[in-house]
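Why does residue order matter? Because the sequence determines the fold. Keep that principle in mind as you read this record.
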Amino acid sequence: MKQATFTKVPNKAIDDPALSGNDLRVLLAICRYANNKTHKCHPSRTTLMQKARVGNKTLAKSLETLVNRHYINIEARYSNGAKLSNEYTVIVSTDTMP
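Structure:
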């Protein structure tokens, strides 16, 4: 029998009334790909839109909210001058919530 997989998400995000359903879905999509030790991942915007079931504008708005609320950090990545997918880091510390 195949072992079930699951996604870790910070409880503070679930309890945060400032996050919309779209914000939570985007965070869940990021958390799905995040490494359990480093909390980093590199999904494409297309992948995030598909998994979160949102459009490009909604994704951009939710990413901004998640950064401003200190749930994620986003860093641009490049290779030989070419833009790669962003690096997303899920912030797991409980003392970072505004």
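The two ends are 43 Å apart (CA to CA).
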